[in-house]
Specification:
Elements (H helix, E strand, L loop, with lengths): L1 H14 L13 E6 L7 H16 L4 E6 L7 H9 L5 E5 H4 L18 H9 L1 H9 L6 E6 L3 E6 L6 H4 L3 E4 L3 H9 L3 E4 L5 H6 L5 E4 L1 H6 L8 E9 L2 E5 L1 H10 L3 H33 L3 E4 L2 H10 L1 H5 L3 H12 L1
Helix pairs in contact: 2-12
Bound molecules: alpha-D-glucopyranuronic acid.
Amino acid sequence: MKRLCAFFLALMLSLAGCGSQAPETHPDLILRYADNQPPGYPTTQAAAYFAELVKTRTNGRIEVRVYDSGRLGSENSVFEQLQFGGVDFTRISSAALAEYYTQVEVLLLPYLYTDSEHMWRVLDGEIGQSILDGVSEAGAVGLCWFDAGARSFYTRQKVTGLADLQNLTIRVQESRYMSRLVEALGARTVQIAYGDVYSALQTAAIDGAENNWSSYESMGHYEAAPYYLLDEHSRIPEMVVMSPKSLEKVKDLDPAFEEVLRSCAQETGEYERELWAKREADSEEKARKLGCIVTELSDQELLNFQEAVKPIYDGYPEEIRALIRRIREA
Ligand code: GCU
């Protein structure tokens, strides 16, 4: 009887709008944000942060729903959906983006930067901004840059230098640029979507792959490929992009919201950088503790790698080579 009274009391309060919970606000616009990384990864944590900022700063009128782990499709297919408005936002590796927007290649060339600070000086400067803006040519709106560290090779069998890489079958992203790069280093390449790399390594369909510490660790690739050759052949930044169609919807809601979104993205980019630095160090530590065998390059071996990728630089016209010189000097 007591329970019944409590139930009716709660029902009456909620009908009268006096419940203890604040009434749910309904967003005017729900936007979908895709990422192929798992929950807890720096980029997906940053996506959640972005969603929270957008919700607060639009007074709940825009809700961003994050779909992690490639739930909306592979990186390339998500970008293609975004071009016509099927997905509203995505975070994309510049190597995948280069398939649609070749100008971004200048930012991911092998051994281009001396370190991460150098890369950030370029991305935060005029060159980074003009490449972010230029992605409109590929049917996307560039919002901000994310860090993704440097990529190195990892293999099922021990590899200690360039000579051992020759003719191995290495998985690369669905990116002609990445195939070119890895083939310049003497390996054969096979393009496989990120979510399928783990099983390709496990079944020995490939000899190895290449990625940053955080991906190597979080995707469990180290289980089948415990040899990590720390050659750091490329720093590949990532971009958060939006569909132009979705941006129109946002502006229709309130023209001021475009600026709101852009500044939320800018702050999110800064937040991701911090998350990245921590996760990269933690992942490296974890992989080493788990027994992965890490080989560092001698100065001579590093020169061998740099020499091998020179034809990639030579393949660009003078105008691009001048831009590359500016990036190097930044
Ligand atoms: C990194 C990057 C992903 C990309 C992946 C890959 O993990 O963050 O966006 O898909 O590399 O190698 O495919």
